[in-house]
Design a protein that fits this description.
Blueprint: H1 2-15, H2 21-32, H3 36-42, E1 43-44, E2 64-65, H4 71-82, H5 87-107, E3 119-123, E4 132-138, E5 141-147
Parallel strand pairs: 1-3
Antiparallel strand pairs: 2-3, 3-4, 4-5
Helix pairs in contact: 2-4
């Protein structure tokens, strides 16, 4: 039995997926759905100071908000989010976003509590080994990834 486990142990890294490969493809797909004006909001240089300026509290944000996206674009944005999260993480993120709608009804303040105020930003060129990243951010949710290398 031990002889069988040793060769399998050493072969596992040969078959592992490239880190970031799925999220790069999802980011490229998301960007491909955008019109030029939307792309100017969502696509930022990797060197942008905004890449490291993230908060989960209510404030003005950079990026393209979900409320300015078509259904297909929102689906691509959620696929990007899903590409980096576990099942538990996906559930938590969607629950946080859904809570905004519920609280908007309870508080009678749809301007402040708006589930369309979650923003997507892509920094640099997805898949660039020198570095790229993306952010999905809104009230009580801030997911930021920076991927360097191949």
């Amino acid at each position: 039995m031990k002889k069988l486990l040793i060769p399998l142990f050493f072969s596992l890294p040969l078959h592992a997926a490239e880190p970031g490969a799925g999220t790069a493809a999802a980011a490229e797909k998301f960007l491909s759905t955008l019109e030029d004006g939307q792309k100017s909001k969502a696509a930022l240089p990797f060197s942008s100071d905004d890449r490291e300026n993230f908060r989960f509290t209510p404030r003005d944000r950079q990026g393209l908000p979900l409320k300015e996206m078509t259904d297909d674009q929102r689906k691509a944005a959620m696929t990007l989010l899903d590409s980096a999260l576990s099942e538990k993480g996906k559930l938590k993120a969607t629950q946080i976003m859904t809570l905004e709608s519920i609280l908007a009804d309870i508080e009678k303040n749809p301007t402040y509590r708006d589930d369309g105020k979650y923003y997507v930003s892509i920094f640099g060129t997805p898949g660039d080994a020198k570095g790229w990243g993306w952010r999905f951010e809104g009230h009580h949710l801030s997911i930021n990834l920076t991927i360097v290398g191949d």
